[in-house]
Amino acid sequence: MRRRRAEAAEHNPGRHSGIRRPTVPVGKRGNCALPRVYRSGLNGAMRSGVVAKTGGICLYESVAADVARLIDQGAFLPGQRIPSVRALSRQLGVSIATVIEAYGLLEDRGCVEARPQSGYYVRRRPQGRPGEPDISAPAMSPTRVSVSDLVMMVLRDAGNPNLVPLGATIPGPELLPTDRLNRVLAAVARRKGALGSSYAMPPGCEALRVQLARRALEAGCALVPDEIVTTNGCQEAITLALQVTCQPGDTVAVESPTYYNFLQAIEVLGLRALEIPTHPRDGLSLEALRYALDQTPIAACLAIPNVNNPLGGCMPDERKRELVELLAKRDVPLIEDDIHGELVFGDERPKVAKAFDRRGLVLLCSSVSKTLAPGYRVGWIAAGRFQGRVEHRKAVHNLASPTLPQLAVAEFLANSGYDRHLRRLRKTAARQMGQLAEAVVRHFPQGTRMTRPQGGLGLWVELPAGSDALVLYDRALRAGITIAPGPLFSPKQRYRNFVRLNAGQWSARTEAAVAVLGALAAELCPG
To answer: For each of the chain's 527 residues, which pLDDT tens digit applies?
Structure first.
């Protein structure tokens, strides 16, 4: 990838030697110069300040966004060469390095491709861009949850190494710094001696909590180490949060669709779920939640504002603020899962809803399972006013989380280039998401729709009406493929014609599996 970009940049006029200049005069039809709509659009953006670094958006991200918008509008067609690095640099008055970064970002997202000794071109897409699923419209009434048997079946199949893992959203081992983390673990074990085998009683390993508090600042959240309790992964954090905010029989408001392990926890704890309509990009409908709060006693709201699972959307910051304030007025706790918050596609991680919490009603839960090591089971919760109850429940559950993995993660966060690793991981995840989406467009039946994830590893795919995801699951399993069928993501097992696919692992084998899955999906289409 880097070599292709370098070769494309070498061809594009700039500070590189041996540059070939265009032979067609600027402004003539058939060259790769800026079309009139492009010049006016981006010059207007410059004049209006869109391309400046404002609101946490980097200059190259703004340039990339404007070029992507023009591609979507047809200013540059599939297969057409886009302006050279130097031409765009001169037109916008930005550095060549900025343009190279912008084009690299577009390449990671699958919008353009670098051709050696030629330049950058709009990637050809096999079909028109499919539409997005509509905002969900569940029946807004509390219901008992019954998904455990289905969830356990899917989890067992997801752990089968003989199946192509298109179900569980797990990063491929090549995406994780496993060797470096193992070296850190070994060094910490030697250096800390008996400390590594001692109990890290609640609230947990102090060194880790210090690092987590520092990183929380990037999410707009001012925490001190004593406000954090370490857990066995994010799932335990969510379960503890439900236990300290709810009693058996209570109702929990959840996004629809929502992560199936949340539903399993709600079921085991004897709670009821109330599905709230959720937009694929903007998240939970505040209007629908407000109505639900007026109609039904709700003990807690469980949501994923950043990189929703399975939709992949990010709630805008102002909507997060409104969500926190809406619930606070009614003294309803918000349980916030931010496990994918650091896996957003871009350089700026979004704020957490906890950043707007003024009354200690937001219980922020996360882990390193998607960015460092799923098997380390290192998670945490910042529980606000529920801190004491969480510590007590944690001690009753399992006394403490394993100490050595906590120490190793703390050391890695402090000294092993975690931010550099995150930048690479985000770019790779964005590229693989683009590859997966393109493969779905190519191989799935006409009428398939999908989300536009803003981060994470999951792609939510809507099959044509009348398709049955559970039947597809069985047929895919016989073909050596595992997927996550849509009914998993609803307490009433809705979303019968939806599946979630994993972009965390990509290879020729994976791409071939998507082709097989698309053919199986086509066989299930009515008519």
So the answer is: 444 454 454 444 333 333 232 222 233 333 344 544 444 445 444 333 333 443 445 788 788 888 887 887 677 877 788 998 888 998 888 999 999 988 988 887 778 888 877 789 888 665 556 788 999 988 888 988 888 888 888 888 888 989 999 998 999 999 999 999 999 999 999 998 889 889 999 999 999 999 999 999 999 999 999 999 999 999 999 999 999 999 999 999 999 999 999 999 999 999 999 999 999 999 999 999 999 999 999 999 999 999 999 999 999 999 999 999 999 999 999 999 999 999 999 778 999 999 999 999 999 999 999 999 999 999 999 999 999 999 999 999 999 999 999 999 999 999 989 999 999 999 999 999 999 999 999 999 999 999 999 999 999 999 999 999 999 999 999 999 999 999 999 998 999 999 999 999 999 999 999 999 999 999 998 76
Q: In b/e form, how buried is each residue of 410-429, taking b as 16+ CB within 10 angstroms?
A: bbbbeebebeebbeebbbbb
**Diameter of the chain measured on Cα atoms:** 76
The residue with tokens 């707009």 is 220
- CB-count exposure of residue 31 (10 Å: 0-12, 13-18, 19+): middle
Distance of alpha carbon 209 from alpha carbon 254, whole angstroms: 28
Contact 294, 444 (CB under 8 A): no
Encode burial over 156-188: b for 16+ CB neighbours within 10 A, e otherwise.
Answer: ebbeeeebbbbbbbbbbeebbbeeebeebbeeb
Strand partners, 382: 364
Cα–Cα distances in angstroms (integers) from residue 362 to residues 48, 279, 320, 338, in the given order: 37, 22, 11, 12
pTM: 0.78
DSSP β-ladder status, 283-284 and 112-115: unpaired
Question: Which of 292, 282, 289 lies closest to 317, judged by CA?
Answer: 282
For tokens 């970064």, what's the residue? 101
φ, ψ of residue 148 in degrees (nearest 5): -60, -45
Which tokens go with 418?
A: 């975690």
Contact 75, 51 (CB under 8 A): no
Return the bridge partners of 71, or none: none
